[in-house]
Amino acid sequence: MLHKCGGAPLAIITMASLLVGRPVEFWSKVYNSIGFGNEDNKDVNNTRKILLFSYYDLPCYLRTCLLYMSIYPEEHLIEKDSLIWKWVAEGFIHEEAGVGLYEIGERYFNELINKSMIQPVDSHPYDRTITGYYDIITGCRIHDMVLDMICRLAKQENFVTALYNNEQQAYTVHHNVRRLAVGDKNCLANTCMPQVRSFNVLSSDVKLPSLSCFQVLRVLALEGDTSSEHDTTCLEHLGKLVHLRYLGLRNINISELPKEIGDLKFLQMLEMKDCNKLLKLPQSIGQLSQLKCLRVYADRFSMLQCLEDTALDWIRNLTSLEELCLLNVSESSNFVNDLGKLTELRKLCIVSLRLKSASLIKDWEESLDKLQKIQVIDIGWFIYKEEGDATYCREGYAPPRQLRVLHMQYKQPGLPIKISPSLQPNLSHLSLQVNALDVEIFGRFPELVTLQLDVNTYHYDVTGAPGAFPKLRAFKTDGTPRFLGVMPNLEYLEFVVSIMDLNTKPDFGSLVNLPMLQRVVILVWYNFNEFDSEEAKDVVREAIFSGPSGFTFELKGWQC
Ligand SMILES: *[C@@H]1O[C@H](CO)[C@@H](O)[C@H](O)[C@H]1NC(C)=O
Ligand SMILES: *[C@@H]1O[C@H](CO)[C@@H](O)[C@H](O)[C@H]1NC(C)=O
Ligand SMILES: *[C@@H]1O[C@H](CO)[C@@H](O)[C@H](O)[C@H]1NC(C)=O
Ligand SMILES: *[C@@H]1O[C@H](CO)[C@@H](O)[C@H](O)[C@H]1NC(C)=O
Ligand SMILES: *[C@@H]1O[C@H](CO)[C@@H](O)[C@H](O)[C@H]1NC(C)=O
Ligand SMILES: *[C@@H]1O[C@H](CO)[C@@H](O)[C@H](O)[C@H]1NC(C)=O
């Protein structure tokens, strides 16, 4: 079999995924079906044959989902969530009682990874900071040869038509195209496409046709990569796309969505990313009773203007929502109360949540209590302030058992949250503000992979019984911890060292308890009235060299 693969890694991996767990008769069948070629480029040809064999070995539903991925160009980082919602919109996911469509789609995605048809990508693959240690797979890539294969097949079957280079500019789109993907500087301005059910634009330079020329569109993705001239005019006639399930807008220069969006009765996914001029969302979104995913977010947060507060009253209507991501929510809306009505929520992300009274915090906790399916809670900035002496005596919110990710950065410490290894056994990513005395408990979460703790004191001890922190790979904190117990799998560590005079040397001896440590980032706080950042870093560098070794480190200066 190895010989058949001609040493080509992709062929070997694909072959292995094809054969694992199959009876020997199947092996001979594969062996006999893949012939040796005598051509010069026989490895390429053989790899192609192996890939094709693996493709036809997939169940039918997976073949469809894989073929659909020919809408993406080479080297493209495909976002998992967006892909799965497109599959849902296209009707590729077969319903099963009691399981959400997204979850079934996620299973398909994992099966394609398992068959080596797509390559998984972790979040933030390029900067291995703490977020790089999420073992949550957020995307994938397709090997060029797999892409080449599915593009040929998709073209043969008139399944997808992809226009990804300028040579095809003059291409006249056939009237029977069913799914169209466009990049580069193609011009479709005067094209009419009554049969197209999926229209994906992955460049900001494409000249778009009028939406009035589509009649059966289910997926509309204007997902250009840079800020574009695409503005409100490209959304004219949006309300006529009554079959639309998926609407994805990126880098579109709009301040408002057309209110006709309320007419899209079947819409399931609405995403607006990096639409930096966006000021408000129309009330009519409240009519989208099928909406399962609403995301308004940005990679470049600093460029954003604020969404108006009062614009969120409609959210209580969206009772089918499974995922909600918003930028900035503040107390004047009824948001925290309405949140409790969204009982299907699996994932809640808010960049900045501002609650100014004790009673609102109580409402917030009561609402969260009603979200019994929630798995991810990610609040970037949780800002709260209590009025006068009216301290509301809180029990603390206890998240449900299936919680996997909890990020809550409070501006002020002290808001309790009830978590424990027995209450939330699957918790794998945690970011919280805590009391130094409570740090020990985190060693007992069996699935914890990343941990970020803001602690109320500079120097504190991280202890842990034998077997503590079994899976922890990344730890970040705003203090100077001393590791008294072993963290057997920790690879990444980020902490703060404060240098107030040049004669007091920090002691990094306890890092010896981190046997797998690979990378350390230290934020050096220094007294800038007395000396400069380089002098402070020298002190830290010297201390590191005289301590345990085996890892790379990076120092960042910070005035105080
Ligand atoms: C590869 O296969 C194709 C057709 O399947 C054939 O035409 C070609 O000669 C083969 N060899 C090379 C080197 O491409
Ligand atoms: C992947 O394949 C292996 C071997 O067939 C199987 O044991 C495993 O359960 C599969 N995992 C998923 C997520 O499908
Ligand atoms: C965005 O639209 C505004 C007015 O609608 C215009 O002034 C501005 O130049 C546009 N920006 C880009 C990048 O096209
Ligand atoms: C909420 O839903 C009700 C009933 O479907 C509808 O009458 C109302 O207009 C909706 N509210 C908003 C703000 O869209
Ligand atoms: C959130 O909105 C409030 C009120 O509109 C504004 O004052 C605040 O600066 C915004 N916060 C962020 C982080 O954008
Ligand atoms: C924890 O995760 C496992 C594997 O995904 C799952 O089978 C189990 O039901 C989860 N436990 C809880 C309490 O959600």
TrEMBL record:
UniProt KW keywords: Plant defense, Repeat, Signal
GO annotation, biological process: defense response to bacterium; innate immune response-activating signaling pathway; plant-type hypersensitive response
Organism of provenance: Triticum turgidum subsp. durum
Signal peptide (from-to): 1-21
Disease resistance R13L4/SHOC-2-like LRR domain location: 195-544
Domain (Disease resistance protein winged helix): residue spans on this chain: 71-150
Name assigned to this protein: NB-ARC domain-containing protein
Pfam families for the chain: LRR_14, WHD_DRP
